[in-house]
Hints:
Blueprint: H1 27-47, H2 54-68, E1 90-92, E2 102-104, H3 107-130, H4 137-161, H5 177-201, H6 206-227, H7 232-263, H8 267-293, H9 307-331, H10 367-371
Helix pairs in contact: 1-2, 2-3, 3-4, 4-5, 5-6, 6-7, 7-8, 7-9, 8-9
Amino acid sequence: MAYWFHRNPLKATAPITFELHGVSTNDVTRKIFSDMRTSRTKLLELLVDPNHTVEILERTSNEYFALLQGLYQQIDPNEPENKLRKVLAFKWSNTLLPNPAVEARDAVYEHVSMAINVALWYTKHAAKLAAKDEPDMEEAKQVHKCMRTAAGIFKFVKETLVPKLIDSFESGTDCDTRVLDAYIKQCTAEAQEVTLARAIELKHSSGLIAALAYETAQLYTDADSALSSLDEKIAGKWRKYCQLKLNFYTACAHSYNGETLLAQDKCGEAIRGLQEAVKMYDKAEQLCKEYATAKGTGTTARPQNHLFFRKLGPVVKRTLEKCDRENGLIYHQKVAYDPPHLELRATYGLVSPEEYQNPSLNPLWTPDAYSKFDVSRAPKPEKKKADDKPPSLAPVKEKETPMSDKDPKNVSGCVLS
């Protein structure tokens, strides 16, 4: 699906050398810091390119996180807190607020920030796979799994890591649970789009397709709601994307529900539902234009150019015309003033975030190795002056992924099938 997905930028970070010569006192402690520096650098290099395999990204991120946790997990049971947690200052930008960057002396903040970047990589890898001319079944499964994996990582960050942070952070940063909620809902919705595309292509029952479309629209509604209390200048573009998708999938739900109602000889209700589908589709088209011109971070999706989007409008209108004809010739039913209430629950195909398995602590972190770190020799943090400018970071130079503008060669226009 070329340009079907909105993607926010990766978080930028300042280099960390892990060179604390006074703190690391022997070969084992120096190796821990050396391995941490190497794995962090390698991971950051991988994250800018969505063409890498999931296996290499997962292996490298697990290596780094297994080492990083030794800076904040309790290793000595006699200490209330890991003595190394605050020895390093980590500086990161935010996906919605590129600058100024945020600096925190907290190893958990590093884990939060890097994990968010890893989750974002999965979403970009999924978009890269979906952008091919004709993704095959295995690639469609990978898109589905990547989006569920990303949702699971965001959920882990929100529920497990963020509550452990020492500092509180401003509204709209990536530590804001509203931002993380939006990521979780969007990733889950985009995974469910794959399921819906599959159901349409295989011509499953109109009732099941309508229910899946409705559930997908609800996920985008939840994502939009999570962002609704943030400053429009920060989250406006992202919200427009969620809104255009929720209107599109609501139109899809009303359209397929209309077919179900017609099959049940409820032609009057079907007509009113299809009228609502036309209205929602027209609104989605308008929101596509507003989204394209909205200010904010992130790559700009172009769903209105995609065959799946373009085909729904004519299908809805043809189905409405068919219902109007049959009602005039056969049913003579009154068309309701209000559209049918969509209380649809899908029995199959519902998506949930995949539970994230945090890697175990690296075996280098033994109690003996930990005891050899001497934090009394750590450099003291520099005192900030009143006229110091807030830190800033250059945006990450992400590798561009070519997108196909070719229409898929199938019936539905859903390439993820």
